[in-house]
Please model this.
Amino acid sequence: MPQLTIDIGGRPGIDCRGFCEYCYFRRVKGVHAFGCRHCPPFTVGCAYCTKSVQERYPGFKDLQAVAEDTLASLQLMSGEISRVTISGGGDPSCYPKFRELIEISASMEAPLHIGYTSGKGFDDPAIAQFLIDQGLREISFTVFSVNPSLRRQYMHDPTPEVSLHVLERLCEEVEVYAAAVVLPGVNDREELLRTAEWLEEKGAKGLILMRFANTREQGLILDNAPIRKGQRVHSVEEFRDLVTLMHERFRIKISGTPLWDPEIGSPFVIREEKELLDCLPRIQRRATVITGTIAAPFLRGILDQCGGGCQVLPVEKEIACLITREDLEGIDLSCLGKTVILPGRAFVHDREAEKILTADGCNREVVRGPDTLTADAETSMGMTRAGVLDLEMEQIAALIRIINRYGE
Model:
């Protein structure tokens, strides 16, 4: 059944009542086009790897434009809509005609979801009941902390008490998935425990912990690192331990990004399922698979169990889909085989990737792998373990088929 996404546009930091102190769009400078798999063959840069990655929109779309775009999308769909999701570069709670937007969305008589909000635009407590009455089914709500003073200081929420009241009321009637970027020394430790306890008591379905990123290696590719000078950041191992601790302490689902989902065991939960690993295609050729530092040990172990012979090479970037040409330029080319497989969503133009990875004069085949191999916590939060395993089976099998087709 088709799903409809209503894009309201909007600019980070502008159409959300100002940047949160931890926002990864803070301090963004004029960034050149990255290049990606969607670019034309001889042109570096397209709408996706220029405007979309920076969420560079002129502002919120007016309501008429949103309605017209929605109607156009509906005309291309067949069958009953299973879900309507409101999203955009700005915060939906700050949309100037928010009530009218919700009424239009609810008129399609499908489960209504708000893909993300900070709640900073909610100044009237009555908006919670309005959303419930209009059929809101699910919402992702950035809470940061249930301490109003911390929300005011770090999220620049002008009415934090109202925002938390709305969140509390929604928890009673709607599937609420809260999110918190964790700043060590600010909203972690006792503050984080209080926040999770509050959410569990009010009836939230889950809490996604998001590790604060402050360096290029951690994913700040928009020439804007550091976001907060001197701010300590959890290591990947520290963060995983924090997520595990919180999972063991609370009944609501708690997971983390970039790592991990303790309830499901992802990312790469398939590593624990020998019978499923035995069902994957066998690796018959060799290739160098480039990935990020987080995925590398998981992926290496899985490919070794599927026949081995492939090199898994991490670059100095934790998350594979945020790899850029600078990461490829840091590779020792003597380590590469004759076939190199890039992450499908890496921000590198195909021709530039080939030029960089053959700069030593060796003729290499450079191809892209699948867009994703597993589910991060933001995706797995709404999935079952079986659903994640199905995804991993399909995508890792696709990667192995690429290795067997292009490998040496």
The first helix runs from residue 48 to 54.
